[in-house]
Known about the structure:
The complex is a heterodimer of chains A (about 220) and B (about 300). With about 220 residues, chain A is α+β, with helices and mostly antiparallel strands. Chain A is about 20% helix and about 30% strand.
Amino acid sequence: MFKPLGDSAMLVELGAQIDPQVNRQVHALDFLLQNVNGIIETVPAYCTLTIYYDALHFSFQQIKAVTEEKLQQISEMKRESGRRLEVPVRYGDAANSDIGAVALANNISIAEVIQIHSEKEYRVYLMGFMPGFPYLGILDERLQMPRLPTPRTSIRAGSVAIAGLQTGIYPFASPGGWQIIGWTALKLFDPNSPTPFLFAPNDTVKFIPLADADA
Amino acid sequence: MLEVVDVSGMATFQDAGRRGFQRYGVPVSGAMDWFAYRVANRLLDNPQNSTVLEIGLGDVILRAKRDCVLAATGAGFEIQNYVWTFPLWTSFYVRAGWSVQIKKTSGGNWAYLSIAGGFEAPQILGSTSAYLRGGIGNLLKVGDILENRKPTLELAKLAARNFSAHKLMPYSQTPTLAVIAGPQGARFNNSFFESEYAVSKSFDRMGYRLAGRAVETLDKTELISEGMTMGSIQITNQGQPMVMMADAPPTGGYPKIGNLIAADLPILAQCEAGVSQLRFREAQLEEAQAKYKALVSELAQPCK
Lengths: 215, 304
């Protein structure tokens, strides 16, 4: 459960599957470890929390003991639910849109792809891959698609994409292997803004389909 | 204050790194060789997290607009200051109008150039470190003017200092690097620790791909993305080891056989593509932390 990640980080494993319950525990532990002296930063992921600690302050046994103590408090904690954010999306509106392929592969219409993708609320399980990229789940199984066999060399900023049982949004133009189904005009990452990130881990996200005329 | 006259390599501002934003997907960045970075500032009595110029893969020529004192550390470079040639790990006085060339030689990848007072650079998310993939900071280019903060001492007292790096940091192109077993260490047999690897041509600030015998995987269960750090050794599906470096994303989906210890990271950072021959050994956490503490306390001693 507690594994060293080199000599100044520790990985805490709270489960072994993508599961909202496990991820809530990860974020609860994450919350309890903020502002602990000697902890540099923490990184929540699907079912693990990585704790970066100052090796001059804590030994591995000590950081493990601190974490164990906080884990005991999780059950008594009021759940931190994060914010709820709406993301307007123009589905199918991308030079490289894969929405037709997604519909075809899953034997549904494009309208159904849009409806299934936008009717659900998603959790920001974690952020990673690039600054501001939210890993959202859990995607409906009817939309499940593998990654592209060859990643695209450039994906437009704001592209809404899916892979496996995940969906996400590319914050800026980059290479990527997820299948693109839409595009949002929202800016996900602006390093010069006082609020550089649109999303935070543990937020809830709802996609709002836009008709072409709205955009 | 310096003016950039010529750049053939890649040079960026770096500091001790960007902390607290990995949860938003932002890498730590900072110097590839933390030890050389620390010494570059220490040679000039600069505050510990001062901004330096990290120079890789080629040369940089700068001209002093005013008298200043510079220090250079790292591996694989030499310094030409006016008419003299200096080795790395020294500080030297540069008169207004003189040119300084940081010249790529061999035996390393990265040089760190500090200026008395530290470079003045814009802070983004609490750090001056460039992270080019993320649109943070810039590559140094011809014509850039590099401003510096006020030195702590009069310039003459900061010049002509040197530091014996090799006693503390055994830079080598044929090192045996210490690894702490990783979260998925048990998925692999011992082949990684019994083979020799080279840094491949595919290396950058994000990571070093290693060339050599494919690592045999005993358990191919797909991993759910989880945290990784600088020094994490990921094994790709083809068995290729990939050591994550300063600009590594905070999470990754390949299993990690282990993590390089902090004390050995600078040695790997300076291993050249196509030249170096690396071996790895398994180390204990206590040994690694003791080594790191010893290095840091040595660096805390005042410089002469």
